[in-house]
């Protein structure tokens, strides 16, 4: 079992691009982050609600690896935890390489299940010009590569704080690679 660490937790009651850093957040099973605008059984992201408000919410908790911020800084961008809309910022786990269904045990009680990749939107470009090209690109074969974190659903609730350990439990194989959700 691989381990990482939570470095920041963030939430926002409104549909804002960034989320405010907190001392802790409470994850609610089947819903997401307590008090966050994206919590719920069905989709809460505005574009998805417009398409079909009855879709299941596979984007209850957004996680980004802190290492991305270092890469962005090397490219001339300054991004702090929560500013890209993530709820949990982690260190020490290659979130983008995890397969669908990976469970992350966070802190003493919480468990989230990874559902897919975040599909970055144009709001990232409005936040900082040129940033979208840093978090979405193409690999050598021309396939789209999304680097703006992963989405998950809450399987077991609990309080999460910066400094909490994150344990990675891979699903039984064969593993399916993450796709956008």
TrEMBL record:
Q: Which Pfam families match?
A: MOSC
* Residue span, MOSC domain: 20-169
Family annotation (PROSITE patterns): MOSC (PS51340)
Q: Which domain of life is it from?
A: Bacteria
A GO molecular function annotation here is: molybdenum ion binding
SUPFAM superfamilies this protein is in?
PK beta-barrel domain-like
The protein's name is MOSC domain-containing protein
Q: Which organism is it from?
A: Streptomyces griseus subsp. griseus (strain JCM 4626 / CBS 651.72 / NBRC 13350 / KCC S-0626 / ISP 5235)
